[in-house]
Amino acid sequence: MNTTNPFDEIEQFLGRTPFAGERAWGRDLRTADVDVAEYDDEFVVTADLPGFDRDGIDVRVDDDRLTIAAERDAEREDADRRYLRRERRHESVTRTIDLPATARTGDASATYRNGVLTVTVPLDAVDADEGHRIDVN
Questions:
Q1: Which InterPro entries does its entry note (predicted)?
Q2: Which option is the CATH number for 26-125: 1.20.58.100, 3.40.50.300, 2.60.40.790, 1.10.10.10?
C-alpha cells in the first residue's frame, strides 16, 4: 500500500525538496542574465531585469569592471488581506562584467525599456599599426 501525502507534493512545489533544502525566504540575491557583445567600436551588455523600476537599477564602472545591480520590493503589505504564505518580499540581482582595456567608460550610456537594460560602452579604435599580419603558408 503506497500512501502519499498531498502536502508533501505542495511543499516540494513551493521549494522544500531533498535537493534544494529549505528555500531562502525574504531577501534573495541572484545574478542577472546578460548577453555581452563586442563590436569594432562598442561593447554592449544587455541584461534582463523584468519588473524592476528604473530607480531601482544601479549601473557602475569600477576598476574596468561593469556592475549592474537592481533591487525591488514586491507588493506592499495589505492589512485587509490574510496571507497564508508570503514569499514575494524583496529581490536583488547583480552581475559584474570585465570590460576590455580599450573601453571609454566615461562615455558609457544605459537605457532601460520593457524590462531590458542595455549598457553601451564605446571602445577606442585599435591602431592597425600596433602590429603586423603574419601570413600563414
A1: A-crystallin/Hsp20_dom, HSP20-like_chaperone, Small_HSP
A2: 2.60.40.790
